[in-house]
């Protein structure tokens, strides 16, 4: 990992709050006020896995939220209020996610919480019972679209939720792309502790069978989170004659699996959800391990549209260690977008926002796009119904070739129609 990714651990939030190390700063009030008075500073909590087994995909994640909040404060804040960010590390632990979320509410007095972690699901019951608005780029579990969690708002459509007794997926275009690369026998892997990783792996395998006539050769959704030893797995994939591999992992596991597959003589198309980021590009060993592999991207950082270019410019402006041309990590762009959604909710809540006004008014926004960054709107309306999910979703796919990530398939958007998982 490059030295420029060794981040400054002192975070100056917009209102002058200093968070030393991975601890948070804030008031010592016993509980968060339900209403923000005229002109008062509004405290926002941020929970991320900055250390532990998930951290490799969250490098610099706190600075994404910080950049969005600093940009908002530079523009005058929200309805006359400046915003203050308080950062907590959940250490890649479900238990710690709950502990630090509770600490943000009961000790630091935050108005709302940006909880962007694979382990948010653990804190969801507490945050709901406390009536705290929560935003996130949800990659952890189904609570973002299921009752009773009306206080939780996902930047993207909550595809992990169950609607009418079914789960839905958007993988038909991706598996047809994999088939065009020659994949006929696909292996799928996911972390056992993670509902999202398990579902992502299983849904892609089902889509591959149903929509592209690709057989499942190996299915393992009980991998320990953050695993880096895949000796037995590679032997199983090789003996099953797989020519395609998909894994719902964080960076470190992707790098380890890809490296071992290639060293083990497995000639397969490899498709990973994470790995398109600067920390991989800054590491010669990671680049060598992932050479030739494919990655989906929701946002085109190679040829960004104007709103996405503004996001990248804000990251460069407010984080001195982020440089022009850098690729933000999942943690960085996800926390930026989750902070944007928190700001949107505060704008809709009025001059003296209450938590209830935030929740009820943001639930009426059916066309959230993060200022145009999202390629299609996310609906906050119709909570816990299928109407929350769009009929179509699209993604770009990039491939690591040599020293660069390049857009695959001529840079075309690969789109999939919503389908029910059987």
Which structural traits does this protein have?
Rossmann fold; 2 domains; 19% strand; single chain; five-stranded parallel β-sheet; 33% helix; 17 strands; four-stranded parallel β-sheet; 422 residues; disordered N terminus; alpha/beta
Descriptive report:
This protein has 422 residues and is α/β, with parallel strands linked by helices. The chain folds into 2 domains: 3-156 and 304-388, Rossmann fold (3-Layer(aba) Sandwich), CATH 3.40.50; 168-297 and 392-420, Response regulator (Rossmann fold). 33% of the residues lie in helices and 19% in strands. The chain contains 12 helices and 17 strands. The protein has helices at 61-74, 94-106, 120-129, 172-180, 195-212, 231-239, 251-263, 278-281, 284-290, 306-318, 330-349, 355-362; strands spanning 11-12, 18-19, 42-48, 83-89, 112-115, 134-136, 152-154, 168-169, 185-191, 215-223, 244-248, 269-272, 294-297, 392-401, 404-407, 414-417, 419-420. Helix 2 (94-106) packs parallel to helix 3. Residues 1-32 have low confidence and may be disordered.
Concise structural overview:
This protein is an alpha/beta fold and 422 residues long.
Give the number of domains: 2
Residue-averaged pLDDT, rounded?
90
Q: What is the number of helices?
A: 12
User: What is the CA-atom radius of gyration, in angstroms?
Assistant: 21 Å
How helix-rich are the residues, as a percent range?
A: 25-40%
| Strand residue percentage | 15-25%
Order of helices and strands: EEEHEHEHEEEHEHEHEHEHHEHHHEEEE
Shape assignment: globular
Q: Give the CATH architecture of the largest domain.
A: 3-Layer(aba) Sandwich
Task: Describe the largest sheet.
Answer: 5 strands, parallel
Would you identify the regions where 5 or more consecutive residues have pLDDT less than 50? 1-32
Span between N and C termini? Answer: 42 Å
Please state the structural category: alpha/beta
């Amino acid at each position: 990992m490059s030295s420029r990714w060794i981040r400054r651990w002192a975070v100056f939030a917009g209102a002058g709050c200093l968070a030393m190390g991975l601890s948070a700063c804030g008031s010592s009030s016993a509980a968060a006020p339900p209403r923000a008075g005229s002109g008062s500073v509004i405290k926002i909590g941020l929970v991320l896995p900055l250390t532990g087994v998930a951290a490799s995909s969250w490098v610099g994640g706190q600075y994404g939220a910080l950049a969005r909040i600093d940009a908002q404060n530079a523009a005058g804040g929200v309805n006359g209020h400046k915003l203050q960010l308080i950062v907590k590390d959940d250490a890649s632990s479900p238990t710690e996610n709950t502990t630090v979320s509770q600490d943000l509410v009961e000790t630091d007095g935050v108005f709302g919480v940006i909880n962007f972690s694979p382990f948010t699901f653990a804190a969801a019951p507490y945050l709901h019972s406390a009536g705290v608005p929560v935003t996130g780029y949800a990659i952890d579990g189904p609570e973002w679209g299921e009752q009773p969690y009306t206080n939780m708002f996902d930047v993207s459509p909550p595809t992990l939720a169950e609607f009418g007794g079914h789960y839905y997926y958007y993988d038909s275009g991706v598996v047809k792309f994999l088939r065009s690369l020659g994949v006929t026998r696909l292996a799928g892997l996911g972390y056992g502790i993670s509902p999202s990783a398990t579902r992502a792996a299983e849904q892609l395998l089902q889509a591959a069978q149903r929509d592209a006539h690709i057989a499942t050769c190996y299915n393992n959704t009980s991998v320990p989170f953050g695993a880096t030893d895949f000796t037995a797995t590679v032997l199983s994939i090789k003996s099953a004659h797989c020519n395609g591999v998909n894994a719902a992992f964080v960076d470190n596991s992707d790098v380890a699996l890809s490296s071992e597959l290639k060293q083990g003589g497995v000639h397969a198309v490899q498709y990973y959800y994470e790995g398109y980021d600067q920390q991989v590009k800054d590491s010669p060993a990671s680049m060598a391990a992932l050479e030739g592999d494919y990655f989906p991207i929701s946002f085109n950082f190679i040829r960004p549209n104007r709103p996405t270019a503004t996001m990248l410019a804000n990251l460069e402006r407010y984080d001195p260690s982020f440089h022009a041309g850098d690729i933000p990590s999942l943690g960085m762009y996800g926390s930026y977008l989750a902070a944007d959604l928190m700001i949107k909710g505060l704008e809709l809540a009025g001059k003296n926002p209450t938590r209830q006004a935030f929740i009820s008014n943001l639930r009426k926004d059916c066309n959230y796009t993060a200022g145009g960054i999202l390629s299609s709107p996310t609906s906050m309306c119709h909570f816990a119904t299928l109407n929350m999910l769009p009929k179509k979703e699209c993604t770009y796919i990039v491939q690591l070739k040599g020293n660069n990530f390049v857009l695959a398939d001529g840079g075309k958007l690969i789109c999939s129609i919503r389908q029910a998982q059987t």
